[in-house]
Amino acid sequence: MTTQPTGLRERKKRQTRESISRHATHLFLQRGFDQVTIAEIAETAQVAKMTVTNYFARKEDLALDLGDTFVSMLANAVRDRRPGESALAALGRTYLAAADAQDPVVGFSGPEFARMITDSPRLVARLREFHDDRERALASALADETGAAQGEVMPRVAAALLAGVHRLLFDETLRRTLDGDDNGSIAAAVTADAEVAFAALEPSLGSYAVRPIS
User: Fold this and answer.
1) Which residue ranges are recorded for the region named Disordered (predicted)?
2) What does the pLDDT look like over 199-208, one tens digit per residue?
3) What CA–CA distance (Å, rounded) separates 84 from 212?
4) Domain 3-58 annotated CATH 1.10.10.60
5) Do the domains 67-205 and 3-58 match in fold?
6) Measured in whole angstroms, how far is the alpha carbon of residue 119 from the centre of its chain?
7) DSSP letter (8 states) at residue 58
């Protein structure tokens, strides 16, 4: 008896969140992130100011609303890796699929959005925090998956290397976007870069965190 109302409430919340984010992004792209206030976003989205802050604790997260997905992406790829597949192979496979799909989570945001980010020191700083959070989440997942003892350094070393490659590829995608390259050529370029980068890590991480074949 309660399943349907709960489902409807959750759908309503999701729709409200998406509407706020959509209106905020439109304003940010029009006028620049730093020039738009929370009150203006609330008015445009036709909600109370408190509603905006309830859904988005920080103004930066209105612009970077895929932050949760971004942070969890690498850890999830490790947890979902196939039997016999290493963490390195799983992350390489996941990245190449995302680049082929021109996924915004790996940087395919379009020139207007990319410029909005790079023009705002606050957004650049928040994006840096997301990268750092993603590395920590990956280190935690690697520690869990390998049964590492508390404080063991290897999961953090591997996470620094693997997340570092993803950060480099994200930055390269952003740079090429700002330079005016189209998404197809960017995807081809970063795919080639990714293959070089992941191959460079193969000697040290190719046999690390391999999922057992049961």
Assistant:
1) 1-21
2) 999 999 999 9
3) 6
4) yes
5) no
6) 19
7) S
